[in-house]
Amino acid sequence: DTAVSQTPKYLVTQMGNDKSIKCEQNLGHDTMYWYKQDSKKFLKIMFSYNNKELIINETVPNRFSPKSPDKAHLNLHINSLELGDSAVYFCATSSSGEDTGELFFGEGSRLTVL
Amino acid sequence: AQKITQTQPGMFVQEKEAVTLDCTYDTSDQSYGLFWYKQPSSGEMIFLIYQGSYDEQNATEGRYSLNFQKARKSANLVISASQLGDSAMYFCAMREGLRGGGNKLTFGTGTQLKVEL
């Protein structure tokens, strides 16, 4: 079983469309994140949920809306897609009880907006 | 605000040689953690090594070691006996704890390492 799984892995869509990326974890971690990696490979945090509560909401357009239906799932919905949204989106998890705070990453979802 | 700086966009190393990837950080927190992650061309993020701010010994994990110099605010990654499979992007990251639980990792811009025969 993949510890942190994201679907879809690849997504090609037209500008203006709405799309969602889903993330599921089976590690029992209480915190989940969305990171965006741009074309220059820069990784930037977007959102984080701890026990289904939003705790990090970086400066992200409000076209992006995260939702955590339960502790094991964190979804990312993007409205009115723009060319600049093309990126790899990584889901990650961590455990508050873990000393290091290591992030466990999913395989990434590559979004291409045409 | 925390900041991570990786000044080497790209590095080359001969197979079997050692290489050091630089990372400096800036924080006003007393308690923090430093990480290195590897991202091969296949895209996944692989955790390599962790150093806590209160750890007195430098962290080591197999061929990876972290040269932690707290006064200089540096956390360089040393890879010994480089292998072709070490060719990848390497990210330094710093953790800050958040009120209410959870952690936030801030990443540097990365160093692309290429191991040559």
Architecture overview:
The complex is a heterodimer of chains A (about 110) and B (about 120). With about 110 residues, chain A is an all-beta fold. Chain A is built from no helices and 11 strands. Chain A has strands at about 5, 10-15, 20-25, 30-35, 45-50, 55, 65-70, 75-80, 85-95, 105, 110-114. In chain A, strands 2, 4, 5, 6, 9, 10 and 11 form a 7-stranded mixed β-sheet that branches. In chain A, strand 5 and strand 6 (about 55) form a beta hairpin. Chain A is globular and about 40 Å long. With about 120 residues, chain B is an all-beta fold. Chain B contains no helices and 12 strands. In chain B, strands 2, 5, 6, 10, 11 and 12 form a 6-stranded mixed β-sheet that branches. In chain B, strands 3-9-8-7 form a 4-stranded antiparallel β-sheet, with no helix packed on it. In chain B, strands 1-4 form a two-stranded antiparallel ribbon. The mean pLDDT of chain B is about 95. The interface of A and B includes residues 30, 53 and 96 of A.
Secondary-structure map:
The complex is a heterodimer of chains A (114) and B (117).
Chain A: E1 4-7, E2 10-13, E3 19-25, E4 31-37, E5 43-50, E6 53-57, E7 64-70, E8 73-78, E9 87-94, E10 104-105, E11 109-113
Parallel strand pairs in A: 2-11
Antiparallel strand pairs in A: 1-3, 3-8, 4-5, 4-9, 5-6, 7-8, 9-10, 9-11
Chain B: E1 3-5, E2 10-14, E3 19-21, E4 24-26, E5 33-39, E6 46-52, E7 60-61, E8 64-69, E9 74-79, E10 88-97, E11 103-107, E12 111-116
Parallel strand pairs in B: 2-12
Antiparallel strand pairs in B: 1-4, 3-9, 5-6, 5-10, 7-8, 8-9, 10-11, 10-12
